[in-house]
Amino acid sequence: MFHLFQGLYNNWNKKEQYSILILGLDNAGKTTFLETLKRLYKLSSKELDKIVPTVGQNVATILTEQKIQLKFWDVGGQESLRSMWSEYYSQCHAIIFVVDSTDRSRIDEWKHTLTSIMMNDEIEGVPVLMLANKQDKQDRMEIQDIKEIFNQIAEHLSARDSRVLPVSALTGDGILDSMTWLILRLQRNKKLRPPVYK
Ligand SMILES: Nc1nc2c(ncn2[C@@H]2O[C@H](COP(=O)(O)OP(=O)(O)OP(=O)(O)O)[C@@H](O)[C@H]2O)c(=O)[nH]1
Ligand SMILES: [Mg+2]
């Protein structure tokens, strides 16, 4: 009898878990974003000035106010590592694509990279959140200009939720707002990509 109740309790206590893949070119600020997110959700986090370029992956799970688990996968953005990204596609419920808003010289590179991600069949219908990062810097591009570039890519592709939001992974500005957008879209997309229960 105890085992039955224990089993029921364990099932009842399971939480929805969604996997979110953090992509973007090297130096965009993906790992800084993840570490800041951990700090905002009261998890232990690295000092931001100790972050080095990612070669493998960083993983962190946060529990939201709605008692939903968000499991983030931060992978290296160097060109030689990008071919590994697709290994994560079939399991992910959303993609966060981070860009360095100050780096005008790499716009074509991230446009091309984002286009090839969004055209992959394995992530059809998955919400895409683009974070225009490093908004704390004076020489940042206008958010409107970044949105225009993003829209050129998004309008040719299948219907899905997508958004561009300005953030600073370094200061934390805009990060919690971006989570609000993401959580809503994950839940809306639940039929297409059901969460796992953990
Ligand atoms: N000013 C400013 N600097 C930032 C911000 N986010 C990241 N950086 C800096 O950008 C550099 C790269 O940050 P990372 O978080 O390592 O970038 P990444 O996208 O994880 O890079 P890879 O792991 O190589 O793919 C570091 O020097 C960060 O301090 C930001 O919002 N503002
Ligand atoms: Mg990194």
Summarize the structure.
With 198 residues, the chain is of the alpha/beta class. It has helices spanning 2-12, 30-40, 107-118, 143-154, 175-188, and strands at residues 16-23, 57-63, 69-75, 94-100, 128-133, 162-166, 196-197. Helix 4 links the parallel strand 5 and strand 6.
Structural class: alpha/beta
The SSE order reads: HEHEEEHEHEHE
Query: What would you call the quaternary organization?
Result: single chain
Number of helices: 5
- Nearest-angstrom radius of gyration? 17 Å
Binding site for Mg(2+): 31, 54
Organism: Arxiozyma heterogenica
Binding site for GTP: 24-31, 77, 133-136
InterPro entries: P-loop_NTPase, Small_GTP-bd, Small_GTPase_ARF, Small_GTPase_ARF/SAR
List keywords for this structure.
198 residues; 5 helices; alpha/beta; seven-stranded mixed β-sheet; globular; single chain; binds magnesium ion; binds guanosine-5'-triphosphate; 7 strands
